Amino acid sequence: MSEQSFEQMLEESFKTIRNGEVVEGTVIDVKPDEIVLNIGYKSDGIITRNEYTNEPNTDLTTQVEVGSTMEAKVLKVNDGDGQVLLTYKRLAAEKGSKRLEEAFENQEVLTAKVAQVLNGGLSVIVDEARVFIPSSLVSDVFEKDLTKYDGQDIEFVITEFNPKRRRIIGDRKQLLMAKKEEMRKALFERINVGDVMEGTVKNVTDFGAFIDLGGADGLLHISEMSWGRVESPKKTFKVGDVVKVFIKDINDTKIALSMKFPEDNPWNNATEKFAAGTIISGRVARMTDFGAFVELAPGIDALLHVSQISREHIEKPADVLKTGQIIEAKIVDFNEAERKISLSMKALIQDEDAASEE
């Protein structure tokens, strides 16, 4: 047998391949930036790092093992050095595009890692195919900074699939809204007026705080935050605080909350503590022209009439008292039914004078 005829027979024993064809091969060598495949052709197939992944500086020896099999697409039958140039990532992208098309048609929920945070949204990769999620579709609330999603696995659905225009749009917002609606329905099915619950402070305003109850928000009005006086909700609560509340009222989709638990009502044992004739200390909470209101305990204010401040004539309480000042006075009247207590500093002075004379 001649040498020429032997070469011809050997070449004929190899399969023929064409550009764009998908081939399967066995990994015979792996370098940090290159994979070599035996594809049953007269030349080996080469997959460079750039044709394997979009991640720069990836060490391919950590991705592929010698002896494993993999599919790739032929880019060039002869790369100039007698080798076959292959691409893995482009084939994966084509498969990923097909996968996304099926997910789009079936409205399937996908999970993928955020590959890049862009000015206008997030970029995620599904089987090497890129999906763009606009900022407006990332969350059900406005988020100016999306960097917290970088590298995170997120769920979404495909709402637009147009590979020719390179528009594959994902939507995470509708999943969050659907989940919240399920939680909201479940919450309203199980809660009742009077139920004690734990919630998380979601937002604080000048008039109250909105508490996330796990499906819906309830309003904790400033007047329901304490039996005592709350001057500013923003000084009392901060976003993220976990609080214990009870449901005061449910009106359609609105939930009114309270932290004024009946067992903590300071008037429960007020009869003994604030009986008429008792001498007590209190803090001047606020003043009017006719008198000063003195806080005897959180939730219990007593009136110190201007005529009861001193034996001398006083035009208005602010002439001799200051807000926040601690004073001592005598309880001269206790009306439990109307929850009214009257104080007198003048009576206390008179008692002292009488004691001195005796």
Structure description:
- The protein is of the alpha+beta class.
- Helix content is 19%, strand content 39%.
- It has helices at residues 3-13, 89-106, 173-190, 233-236, 270-273, 345-357; strands at 22-31, 34-38, 45-48, 69-76, 84-87, 110-118, 121-126, 129-134, 153-162, 167-171, 196-204, 208-212, 217-221, 242-251, 254-258, 279-287, 291-297, 300-305, 326-335, 340-344.
- The longest helix has 18 residues, at 89-106.
Quickly list its features:
single chain; alpha+beta; 5-stranded antiparallel sheet; 358 residues; 5-stranded mixed barrel; 6 helices
What's the topology here?
Layout: H1 3-13, E1 22-31, E2 34-38, E3 45-48, E4 69-76, E5 84-87, H2 89-106, E6 110-118, E7 121-126, E8 129-134, E9 153-162, E10 167-171, H3 173-190, E11 196-204, E12 208-212, E13 217-221, H4 233-236, E14 242-251, E15 254-258, H5 270-273, E16 279-287, E17 291-297, E18 300-305, E19 326-335, E20 340-344, H6 345-357
Parallel strand pairs: 3-5, 13-15, 18-20
Antiparallel strand pairs: 1-2, 1-4, 2-3, 4-5, 6-7, 6-9, 7-8, 9-10, 11-12, 11-14, 12-13, 14-15, 16-17, 16-19, 17-18, 19-20
